From TrEMBL:
Residues 63-82 are annotated as: Disordered. Its EC number is 2.7.13.3. The keyword Hydrolase does not apply. It comes from Streptomyces pathocidini. It comes from the Bacteria. Keywords: ATP-binding, Cell membrane, Kinase, Membrane, Nucleotide-binding, Phosphoprotein, Transferase, Transmembrane, Transmembrane helix, Two-component regulatory system. This is histidine kinase. The keyword Membrane applies. It catalyses: ATP + protein L-histidine = ADP + protein N-phospho-L-histidine. The chain crosses the membrane at residues 180-198. It is a multi-pass membrane protein. It is found in: Cell membrane.
Length: 563
């Protein structure tokens, strides 16, 4: 009858461990018993040899064998037989046989055997050699020891043969087996208990699943991890990466070789590393990795590790910023429409009153203000995208009651390498400055854009409340903001993206106190401009270090004037 193999891991492991423990116990018992029989045989032969040696060394035995008492030949009543029987009884030997040089017995356990030749070959002992063996004789199988019997002069006159029944050796071996089996059974019981404890622990760890179920779950997990479009990073208790799916590798810019290495070793210091390591806690934490905006969540595991998930919100954040910009543009257009209606009503009233010269003067003034603003921007900022951005921001600022102006030393040629990146930097800084300055007395925002060789230096100062020194680094952290949440539910990325864009180009972004007491943001972008081909003989602009030093000098001078 064939018994079915159990499916559960607990049962399989328990049976395998019991089989292993039983096999090891049986093997150890066999390996112990095999030499034990040989040891008992050796001990019996050595004992027989020792008795024979002691008997042969007895004073007078050789003389009795060949002296006057022995002249009548071997006899059951002779002194040799008496002495041999005395030794046999005192030592517990099976027999003690004393023989002459002809191999004739002078003593034996059975008196009828006295005077007969021994049943085994005595030549070795009579030749002067000591012999140990297990052999068959007239009394059956026995452990034997044979020694030569020498006269006081050293002459061999016979031999002494002592035998110990082999059955007594076997009895000792058999008597030792129960104790040995008891020890083996105890070891087997301890092994069975240990196997049960290990199997129970394994059962809890595997949730009592079968090996086939575990294998299927592993295959499904691999397919799921590499198939989902969300990054998954598993960390152990020591902060090393245990696994990382394809999406996480793409979002973090890592390869498969990062698995098994500490998180702080494969990722640069920053908010992303802090969020994944658990040093920053919370739900749906925003972070920036490279040019990507990520939403991270971290869940601890029972073994002290954690599993972090990453979602790519780059496109969503871009659409959200575009939505905010569109909404601001709509508000500006609505305000412009209202202002335009008021101006048209004013112009209509002047015309109805016949005040034609005043009407012409009013139209000229209104058109001149807008034309002057546009001309001022395009004269100093030659890049079309950036100029259009500033003109639009000036309109929005006017509707919000903020004076947006360019500083006197603003001058940026049409040699921008990445206009869209510079538009992102300027747009984010101006938006933050307008938010900070709105509602303050004499609200104003001043923008400085200038070129120093191939380096672009941007400074945006506002008349807002400013930023305390202890928070000036915090404002560049992803997710930090003092504003209300917009429609898409996220803020705190604009300044982080500004610093990320600047650092990617080898530049810097910092904030300090402006001349009017508000905040002043300074961004240095090396290699932001192409070479000036129109003036090849002109010296190259300042290096990044010189630009930063010059900005520091300007800030110190501004701070001195403020004091």
């Amino acid at each position: 009858m064939r018994f079915p193999w159990p499916r559960r891991v607990f049962s399989q492991v328990l049976l395998m461990q019991l089989a292993i423990a039983t096999g090891v116990t049986a093997l150890a018992t066999g390996l112990f018993l095999a030499p034990l029989s040989d040891q008992f045989d050796d001990q019996a032969m050595r004992r027989a040899l020792a008795i024979a040696q002691t008997t042969a060394a007895r004073p007078g035995l050789a003389e009795e064998l060949r002296g006057p008492a022995g002249s009548g030949g071997p006899s059951p009543a002779g002194p040799v037989q008496a002495e041999a029987e005395r030794v046999r009884k005192s030592t517990g030997a099976e027999y003690v046989v004393v023989m002459d040089r002809d191999g004739v017995r002078w003593s034996h356990t059975s008196p009828g055997e006295i005077g007969r030749h021994v049943s085994t070959d005595p030549s070795e002992a009579l030749a002067g050699h000591e012999v140990m063996q297990i052999d068959d004789g007239t009394l059956g199988r026995s452990a034997r020891g044979k020694v030569p019997l020498r006269s006081p002069g050293g002459e061999i006159v016979g031999a002494v043969s002592v035998g110990i029944a082999y059955e007594s050796v076997r009895d000792r071996l058999v008597s030792a087996v129960p104790g040995l089996l008891a020890y083996a059974g105890g070891a087997l019981a301890v092994g069975a208990l240990a196997a049960y404890a290990v199997s129970r622990r394994l059962q809890r760890r595997t949730h009592d699943l079968a090996f086939s179920d575990i294998s299927a779950l592993l295959a499904e997990r691999e397919a799921m991890l590499h198939g989902i479009r969300e990054g998954v990073v598993a960390l152990d208790a020591r902060g090393r990466i245990r696994l990382m799916n394809d999406e996480a590798q793409r979002l973090l810019g890592l390869g498969p070789e990062a698995t098994g290495r500490p998180l702080d070793e494969v990722l640069a210091p920053g908010r992303t590393t802090d969020v994944l390591a658990g040093r920053v806690t919370g739900d749906d934490l925003l972070t920036v990795s490279g040019h990507r905006v990520l939403v991270a969540n971290r869940t601890p595991t029972d073994d002290g590790g954690a599993v972090a998930t990453l979602r790519d919100r780059t496109e969503l954040e871009r659409l959200g910023r575009e939505l905010d910009g569109t909404r601001g543009l709509i508000d500006a257009l609505r305000a412009q429409d209202h202002e335009h209606a008021n101006r048209m009503h004013t112009l209509l009233g002047l015309l109805e009153l016949g005040l034609y010269e005043e009407a012409v003067e009013f139209v000229t003034e209104v058109v001149g203000v807008h034309r002057a603003t546009a001309e001022q921007v395009t004269e100093r900022v030659r890049d079309p995208l950036l100029a259009a951005l500033l003109v639009g921001k000036a309109t929005v600022a006017a509707e919000r009651g903020v004076s947006l102006r360019l500083s006197a030393d603003t001058g940026l040629p049409d040699r921008v390498v990445d206009p869209r990146g510079l538009v992102t930097v300027v747009g984010n800084l101006v938006d933050n400055a307008l938010d900070a300055a709105s509602g303050t007395p004499d609200a104003s925002v001043e923008i400085t854009l200038r070129a120093e060789g191939r380096t672009a230096v941007l400074r945006v100062a506002d008349s807002g409340p400013g930023i305390p020194p202890e928070r000036r680094e915090l404002v560049f952290t992803e997710g930090w903001s003092t504003k209300e949440l917009p429609a898409h539910g996220r803020r705190g990325l604009g300044l982080a993206l500004v610093r990320r864009l600047a650092e990617r180009q080898g530049g810097s972004a910092r904030v300090g106190e402006g001349p009017g007491g508000g905040a002043e943001f300074t961004v240095v972008l090396p290699e932001a401009l192409t070479a000036d081909l129109a003036a090849p003989g002109e010296a190259r602009g300042a290096t990044v270090e010189e630009a930063i030093a010059r900005e520091a000098d300007v800030e110190e001078a501004a701070a001195g004037e403020a004091r």
